[in-house]
Write a structure and sequence with these properties.
This protein is an alpha+beta fold. The protein has helices at residues 83-90, 109-123, 132-140; strands at 17-23, 26-33, 36-40, 67-71, 74-77, 127-128, 199-206, 225-232, 248-252, 260-261, 265-266. The strands form three sheets. It has a five-stranded antiparallel beta sheet. It has a four-stranded mixed beta sheet with strand order 9-8-7-10. Strands 3-4 form a two-stranded antiparallel ribbon. β1 and β2 form a beta hairpin. The longest helix has 15 residues, at 109-123.
Length: 267
Amino acid sequence: MRIAGEITNRDQQFATYQRVDLGEGIGLDLVLVPGGSFIMGSPAHEPILGNVSGYPRDLFNNERPQHLVTLADVWMGKYPVTQAQYQRLMGENPSQFKGDNRPVEQVNWDEAMEFCDRLSDHTGQTHTLPSEVQWEYACRAGTSTPFHHGETTTPNLANYGADLAYGDGPTGIYRKTTTPVGSFPPNAFGLYDMHGNVWEWCLDLYHENYEGAPTDGSAWVTGGDPDYRIIRGGSWYCYPHFCRSASRDHDLRDVHLSNFGFRVVAS
């Protein structure tokens, strides 16, 4: 008998990547995300869990309307930026949950952008934060299900608040901390930790919904409040519905939290 939430299939995939040498034996891997088209946002039938822990269902109207987006190739960080990588370029490690191979956290949007600027200076190539479109496209990796690994998720596939189940999925251990990057299987593009672990900053300003959103992969940096920026992916602290591919949230660009990190892209 099949158990809801069990892993039913594993496929071997291949990804093209390049390594950026940061010095002192520290590298940063970028994966080639091939361009293409996809439907961005969540369909009306996607389970949201209704009114859970004070979150009204209409909060997730910001994931709609669904719309077609076409975007070009992009090189994206294989993992969220780690504490060793951040320490190497920034000369400090602000993280609460220490570990060289854990994602850096307690980094605000401006500090994430400063890391990208220093990485650009180091490599001579332009690095920045992903646009929200790039992030969701990369997370989905050709899928249209709530998670890139299927209709639900389990604590064997991501790091999140697993004391609450999503859909027919199981509950499980709530780790209450970050995990080393790459602890769970990657998606079909070869990207790790796109669901859970740390929220990831994006370039975009926050807008209440997708009315008028760009359809070419670019960041939405007109309108909206410049003090607020998009975050994606959920975190170790979040219930699983916040870790879905379509899930989006926002926060003040100068906030420091132990479940906020980032990954980079290169043009």
